[in-house]
UniProtKB/TrEMBL annotation:
Gene3D superfamilies: Vaccinia Virus protein VP39. This is Methyltransferase domain-containing protein. GO terms for molecular function: methyltransferase activity. Keywords: Methyltransferase, Transferase. The keyword Phosphoprotein does not apply. The lineage of its organism: Bacteria, Bacillati, Bacillota, Bacilli, Bacillales. Residues 29-159 form the Methyltransferase domain. It comes from the Bacteria. InterPro entries: Erg6_SMT_methyltransf, Methyltranfer_dom, SAM-dependent_MTases_sf. The keyword DNA repair does not apply. SUPFAM superfamilies: S-adenosyl-L-methionine-dependent methyltransferases. GO terms for biological process: methylation. It comes from Cohnella yongneupensis.
Amino acid sequence: MSKSKGGRTIMDPNNVRMREFIYSLITINPKLTILDLGCGQGYDLFRISQLMDNESKLFGMDTNQKSIIKANENYGQDTRMNFIHHNFGQNIPFDENSFDLVFSNNVLECIADKQHLLREVHRVLKPEGQVIFAHFDWDSQLIDGDNKELIRTITQTFNDCGSEIIEDWYFRRSRANATINYSYCFGC
Ligand SMILES: C[S@@+](CC[C@H](N)C(=O)[O-])C[C@H]1O[C@@H](n2cnc3c(N)ncnc32)[C@H](O)[C@@H]1O
């Protein structure tokens, strides 16, 4: 997805393009108060801040303390930006009707109690506020299913042999009616 060079994050162009598309969904108005759930090191919130006026307020939250420190180092000099260490297992530490936009990118699949988080989003969102939950993956895969022995064989073969062989093997098993749930996730 991205790599670090001299403290700067270098993003893959496809990754950037996908993010830019997601930002294009934001309804831009003056003085918006924005919350980014699972902000990581703050890249999305920084890019969103560039679309906003000087009276906007932007808050990023993440359970990873190192990411919050890095986000503050990267973008904390902009007084509109605030990064808060918080785990979504707890209530969001803001009053109801606080935010015009609640944004979250590549996070919801990491959350154990999604209902709780969505209730909290509803609580802190202003009436007529906007919610953007997005997800995209490029780099890694999660293989899951009921047959744990089969899953272990798949992942071990994948590690040992590489993706071409596992894909070939996977499709041969599919034809033999093996049931495998195949989904993607990164970073969790
Ligand atoms: C895949 S990363 C996405 C980061 C960023 N939104 C992006 O798209 O680059 C998922 C982020 O969600 C955060 N996260 C996962 N579970 C969380 C939780 N229960 N509470 C708060 N943050 C969480 C992780 O620390 C991580 O920074």
